[in-house]
Amino acid sequence: MEDLRITLIQTDLYWENTIANLAMLEEKVHTLESATDLIVLPEMFNSGFSQNVKQTAEPMNLTTHRWMRQMAAQTDAVVTGSFAVKEGNRFVNRLLWVEPDGTTAFYDKRHLYRMGFENEHFTAGSERIIRNWRGWNICPLICYDLRFPIWSRNVHLEYDLLLYVASWPAQRNHVWQSLLTARALENLTYVAGVNRIGTDGNDIEHIGGTVLYDFKGISQNTLNAEESILQFTLSKSELTRFREKFPAHLDADGFEII
């Protein structure tokens, strides 16, 4: 069983400035110390968590999507992260999953952060995605989704890695770390959370806390409030052995989301 090399990029963001953010992130991607299979960027990585959709939202296959395709091709890795997308008369906080050959899948954020008025500007998604990449099943979600465990439930071990891209405020960092740990434990899976740093245009502070938890809920590393890149190699064989030794999923309650 093959390992998976993942890269988590924690960074400050230029407020509502797509060109500056893409240039900054491209520089970081080009300085990676080793090859990778998956590059994960924060929530709304091209603008910060802005509700100014008239300023920040793009149609698909424009600047940000094309940039992601370019980065994926150059690195031979999946590039994923979310940004504001305009689709007809509606706006969505959309995570793109872009593979090296340009294949693109997307997930629209299900749980919109009403305390930040996200629900007043964006339309909620209705379907998860699980992508198979180099022998791994991966489920990517967005920020506030983390608070809702049913949405991420790993029924019949559908996925091996759960991702959260986020703009999680500093004042709730304890919640961020606690819920990421819980998602790893209850779903018998690796969990990666990628958060931004810095103070955004709404004067909200972010202190990162980008982290990878293994299937036992043990942190492999945690970033504090600095610009940094984490790279890990995940072991599929170790995950499989643990699931065989501790098959708690066989006792899970059955349900379906309607």
Summarize the helices and strands and which ones pair or pack.
Layout: E1 4-10, H1 18-30, E2 38-40, H2 53-56, H3 63-75, E3 78-87, E4 90-98, E5 104-108, E6 131-133, E7 136-142, E8 161-166, H4 173-187, E9 190-195, E10 197-199, E11 205-207, E12 211-213, E13 219-222, E14 228-234, H5 236-245
The CATH class name reads Alpha Beta
CATH architecture: 4-Layer Sandwich
- Parts with pLDDT < 50 across at least 5 consecutive residues: none
Q: What is the share of helical residues?
A: 10-25%
Please provide a written account of the structure:
The chain has 258 residues and is an alpha/beta fold. The chain has one domain: Nitrilase/N-carbamoyl-D-aminoacid amidohydrolase. It contains five helices and 14 strands. The chain has a six-stranded mixed sheet, covered by helices on one side. Strand 10 and strand 11 form a beta hairpin. Helix 1 packs parallel to helix 3. The N and C termini lie far apart (35 Å). The mean pLDDT is 96.
Short description:
This protein is an alpha/beta fold and 258 residues long.
List key phrases describing it.
258 residues; 21% helix; six-stranded mixed β-sheet; Nitrilase/N-carbamoyl-D-aminoacid amidohydrolase; globular
